[in-house]
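Record type: ASSEMBLY
Status: queued
Input:
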Amino acid sequence: MVVDVHVHPSFFKDICDNPKRVSFRREQTGLYKTGIKPMELIYTQLDAAGINKTVLFAEDLTTLYGDTVISNEEIKTLIDLAPDRFIGFASVDPHRADALEVLDYAFKDLGLMGLKLNLSKQRLFPTDDKLKPIYEKCIKYNKPIMFHAGLSWEPDTLSKYSHPLNFEEVALTYPDLRMCLAHFSWPWVNETVMLLIKYPNVYTDTSMLYLDSPKDFFEQIFMKNMGPLWMDRNFNNKVMFGSNSPRFRPYRLKDALESLDIRRSTIQRILGTNAIQFLGLEV
Amino acid sequence: MVKIKEIEIITKSEFQLIKITEHVRKFVSECGIKNGIVLVLTSHTTTGIMVNESLDCLEIDIEEALERLIPKDAPYAHSHFLPSYGTTGCNAPGHLKSMLAGNHCIFPVIDGEMVFGHAQDIYFAEFDGQLKRKFIIEVMGE
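Status: finished
Output:
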């Protein structure tokens, strides 16, 4: 099974009826020219890439920007269109007074499978007191958290909030909380590797393309910046395939991953097995 | 007089040749213009409009020839983050293939029919699929 653990469905047609909302999404994500995609095209792209399941993220920026970019309810709408294909992650603005109620509703009533937070955009450090009850809520429901980590292309973001070292205390304090530091926390790849080998509950994903073509960038990161045997030997159970679609097209990152000279068994783990473990899916 | 029709399609693969001759022929015969020209134009910069003979073997040769000329992996300058898009430009080969294919074709319209040779077919050529695409058929005349 191939799982893409990192997709923002900002321009999936069935949640794009309101032009003002679409415009707000463009401003907040910096995806200024991405077109609205009919679901038929989404399914065609997923099938052509051989992707069986896709994790869709909500994004809640209510207190700082006045709205959600994608609401938890919109994620539920998309899941209901194709429950065999889509897995939903909730979002909550930690500054909201009703943050815990929002999460209860998302996990219990909407059936969302995890939580996505972009602290660079939401402007708080991982150790902020506002986040502690949110972490405890995720543990209570056995839901993983996908943290944005490293550089964020979204406008008005500060990387200091998403430096991987700022997540270490969370990983240490909450060993039962499965957490993914997305994008290999680029450019802090070595720091991320340190957390991967030290903390069993820390994962990362491949959703990164900050320079060059996908193939060139993956070759640089995985075979040169990192030792070419690091993933095979040291953390082949901690890296998940993620595309960060629509910023990057999934098949291109998948092709780049599959072109790496590493064990095929490691590739298979990255493409699916590790996500199944992270998400707590039964297969 | 000018008559215009826009047609949207969803392409199914990164490279795809889609025969659109019948769309064009039918619009010409129904649009009411007797004599003039018909223009077929793609709305994109990683697709093409081509005229060629519709044979499987030639379609393979076209794909392979373009791939030899413009390989998928090369040190393209376009492969970097594009702030105005918020995405990374990974599709230089599509742009370059589009340049070779051209973005339009023109045929004469005589007595209300498009005039074309027996071996000629019009293709919408996808070089960066899968995507939602649009092409325009414009008939000008009287």
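Annotation: Chain B touches chain A at residues 10, 12-14, 73, 76, 79-81, 83-88, 90, 130-132 (CB under 8 Å).
Annotation: Chain B is about 25% helix and 40% strand.
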